[in-house]
Structures are given as C-alpha cells and as structure tokens.
C-alpha cells in the first residue's frame, strides 16, 4: 500500500467517520425493522410464520453470491460509487417493503435491500481502511460495529419512542425504517463529498484488495479455518434470525409481554453489544487467547436458550447471556481469521466466511418459521415455539463444539502464522 503524504484534517476525519457510522446505523435499523412488526403482519395481513421468516431470509439469499464480487466491484468502480449506489438500492428496498401490502412486493423490497446492504458494508469497511489504516484502524472498526448495533437497538426500541406510529398499524413503522435508509443516503453523499476532496489532496491510502474468492485457494485452508468458519455460521445463524425475526413475537406470546416491553428487552442485547464490543476487542488485542475467549462467548449462546426453555427463568437473564455472547464472539471471531489462514489467502478466507454466513442466515430463518407454523405456534399455543427453541439451541451448541475443537487444534500448535 502506497504511504500517504499527509493526513486528512481532523474535521474531515470526523465527517467521514460520522458518515460511516450513520451508513451502518441506518442499514442495521432497516434490517431489524421486521421483528417489531412481525405480530402485526400476522394479525393484520394474515402472514404465516414461514412468510415472516422469509422476509429476513430473502435478505441473505442474494448475498450468498453477491458478497463474492462485492469487494471486486468496489475496487473496479471505486468506493465512492459503490457506497452511494448500494445505499440508494437499500433506500428503494426499504420503501418497497413499506409499500408491501402484498407479500410479493414486501419480499421484493427485502430482496433489493439485501442486494445493496451487504455490498455497502464491504464498501464502508474498505473506506475505513483507506482513511484510518495504520492509525487506530482496529478501534475505528470496533466502534463502527458498535454504532451499527445501535441501529438494531433503536429498531427494537421503536415501539416505545415511536408508539404513535405503531398505533397506526404495520405500515407506519416501516416508513420510519425507510426514513433511516434515507438518512444513510444523506450520509453517503456527505462521505462522497469529503472523500473526493481528500483523495484529490493525496491524504488517503490505496484501497486494499476486495473480497475475492479463488476456488483453488480453498484447498489451502486447514482445519482451524473451518472450525472458525463453522462457528461463524452457527453463531450468526442463531442469534440474528432469533433476535431480529422471532424473539419479540415469541416474548409477546410465550411470556404475555406487550410489544413495547418485549421490544425493550430484545433491544438490550444490541445495546450491550454496542457498548461492550470495543472493550472485548481491546481485551483480545492485549491478552490474545482467541480460542479460549471464543469458547467462553459461544457457550453463553446455548445457555441463553436453556434459560428460555426453563419456566420461571427471567427473560433478562437470557438477554444478558445473549448480549455478552453477541459482544464477545464478533470481537474475537473476525480478528482470529489471520491466525488460521495465511496472509496470501486472507481475502478469500473472509469472503468465504461471509458467503457461508449469509447462506446460514437464509436457511435458519426459513427453518425456524416453518417449525413455528408446523407446531402451530401462537398466543394460544405457546408450546408451538418449542421446536424453534430446540433448533436454535442445538445449532448454537454445535457452534460451541466448533470453538472447543479450535481450542484443541491451537493447543496442538497448529495455528497458522500471524499476518505480517
């Protein structure tokens, strides 16, 4: 990477980081906007649980393929263009979702949102590297993740601070999500303006290679990488579909909570992650022990579902366990990849993990929705949710086993060399 001749001004850096934060916050708000209205979609539009799951599953479907070329397109057409174009696609998708009184229209909106969202995240990460490489990059990445979690937190709290919108039915809250998407587009414009100016001044580093996948490179990954990849799939395919799609409705029906109360409890998982993720990132930078921390963090996920399945256990305990797990595992998981994959294939390693993650998200959203429908889950049949809880609990337990296998693998001294 060519060294820059001078640094961007503090004001320019502040504008850039704020814009990147708003891009991510709006993106995550829109993604998590389905959960708070799930029960209303069932009652007011007659949607099935499978259809509710489909609304988030269809987000991940295009990214099973597009994430492989997202980084390459970013390199080819430029970060600024990709940030603006993908954010505009997200806005169109959010608006179509809000218009979607017909299920197919809402599915199309969520699909378009998915087309733009993951590639936009890739472009934002590249932009952060361009601006902050060699200058607290890890801290800025962690803070960016934390602010993205705030988007999820705000989406779950929206029944409280936007109660008047929810009183109007399912559509008004989705228009609020569209407003957050519009805010992201304004942030994209601000980023493009300041980035164009600073690039002309020669203050930015050259963008790193995108997330390309060379199929022959996959043969070079050892067992340690596949343990990390399997943990990534098992972890995200549980915590995101459950908390972002089904948790609020489950707490309303199974525990008799109001929409506002269930949303508030659910939101604290994301609030905890927003606050604690940078702290765990600093911890792993200081002490290492990636595998041990992954074991500890991933163990909390099946324990949280055990608490949900145990009558009389407080929902706050389950949420606390989920919040700690959601803070610890992502902070350790992504920095662990250079320990199990050689530097020459690091981009391939990240790209393949993202592909597998989105495939898992799509599948588990559909499976969980089908299990709820098959069990007749609802306010009048609380035990109909048991199949979903067992499914998520066993899948999270499988992720924990992968973390243990990684720990044992590292204990045998088979970790790949650190990236230099």
Provide an overview of this structure:
The structure is a single chain. It contains 15 helices and no strands. With 420 residues, the chain is an all-alpha fold. The protein folds into 2 domains: 201 residues, Up-down Bundle (Growth Hormone, Chain: A); 208 residues, Growth Hormone, Chain: A (Up-down Bundle), CATH 1.20.1250.20. Helix 1 crosses helix 7. The radius of gyration is 21 Å and the shape is globular. It starts with 9 loop residues before the first helix and ends in a 9-residue tail after the last helix. The relative contact order is 0.15.
In short:
The chain is an all-alpha fold.
Features:
about 425 residues, mainly alpha, Growth Hormone, Chain: A, 2 domains, about 0% strand, globular, disordered C terminus
From the alpha-carbon coordinates, what is the Rg to the nearest angstrom? 21 Å
CATH superfamily of the largest domain: MFS general substrate transporter like domains
What are the segments in which pLDDT stays under 50 over at least 5 consecutive residues? Answer: 206-210, 415-420
Spatial separation of the terminal alpha carbons: 13 Å
Portion of residues within helices: over 70%
CATH topology of the largest domain: Growth Hormone, Chain: A
Give a topology summary.
Blueprint: H1 10-31, H2 34-45, H3 49-60, H4 63-77, H5 79-99, H6 103-132, H7 137-161, H8 163-166, H9 171-201, H10 223-255, H11 259-287, H12 290-309, H13 315-340, H14 346-374, H15 386-411
Helix pairs in contact: 1-6, 1-7, 1-9, 2-3, 2-10, 3-6, 3-10, 3-14, 4-5, 4-6, 4-14, 5-6, 5-9, 7-11, 10-11, 10-13, 10-14, 10-15, 11-13, 12-13, 12-15, 14-15
């Amino acid at each position: 990477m060519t060294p820059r001749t001078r640094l961007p001004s503090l004001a320019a850096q502040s504008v850039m980081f704020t814009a990147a934060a708003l891009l991510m916050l709006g993106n995550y708000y829109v993604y998590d906007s389905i959960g708070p209205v799930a029960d209303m979609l069932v009652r007011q539009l007659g949607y099935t649980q499978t259809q509710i799951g489909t609304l988030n599953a269809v987000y991940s479907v295009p990214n099973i393929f597009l994430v492989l070329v997202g980084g390459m397109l970013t390199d080819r057409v430029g970060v600024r263009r990709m940030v603006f174009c993908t954010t505009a696609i997200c806005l169109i998708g959010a608006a179509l979702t809000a218009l979607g009184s017909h299920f197919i229209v809402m599915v199309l909106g969520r699909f378009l949102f998915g087309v733009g969202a993951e590639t936009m995240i890739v472009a934002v990460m590249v932009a952060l590297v361009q601006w902050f490489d060699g200058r607290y990059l890890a801290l800025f990445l962690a803070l960016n993740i934390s602010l993205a979690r705030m988007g999820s937190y705000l989406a779950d709290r929206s029944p409280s601070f936007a109660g008047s919108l929810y009183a109007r039915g399912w559509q008004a809250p989705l228009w609020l999500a569209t407003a957050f998407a519009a805010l992201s587009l304004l942030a994209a414009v601000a980023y493009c303006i300041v980035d164009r100016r600073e690039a002309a001044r020669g203050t930015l580093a050259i963008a790193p290679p995108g997330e390309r996948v060379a199929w022959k490179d996959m043969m070079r990954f050892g067992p340690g990488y596949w343990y990390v990849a399997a943990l990534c799939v098992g972890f995200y395919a549980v915590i995101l579909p459950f908390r972002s799609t089904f948790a609020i409705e489950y707490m309303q029906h199974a525990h008799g909570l109001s929409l506002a109360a269930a949303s508030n409890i659910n939101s604290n998982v994301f609030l905890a992650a927003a606050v604690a993720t940078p702290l765990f990132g600093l911890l792993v930078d200081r002490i290492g022990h990636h595998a041990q921390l992954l074991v500890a963090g991933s163990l909390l996920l099946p324990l949280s579902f055990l608490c949900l399945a145990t009558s009389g256990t407080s929902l706050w305990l389950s949420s606390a366990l989920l919040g700690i797990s959601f803070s610890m595992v992502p902070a350790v998981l992504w920095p662990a990849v250079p320990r199990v994959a050689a530097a020459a294939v690091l981009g391939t390693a990240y790209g393949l993990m993202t592909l597998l993650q989105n495939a898992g998200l799509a599948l588990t959203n559909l499976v969980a929705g089908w299990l709820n429908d098959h069990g007749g889950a609802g306010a009048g049949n609380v035990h109909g949710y048991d199949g979903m809880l067992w499914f998520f609990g066993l899948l999270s337990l499988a992720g924990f086993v992968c973390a243990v296998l990684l720990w044992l693998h590292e204990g045998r001294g088979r970790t790949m060399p650190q990236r230099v």
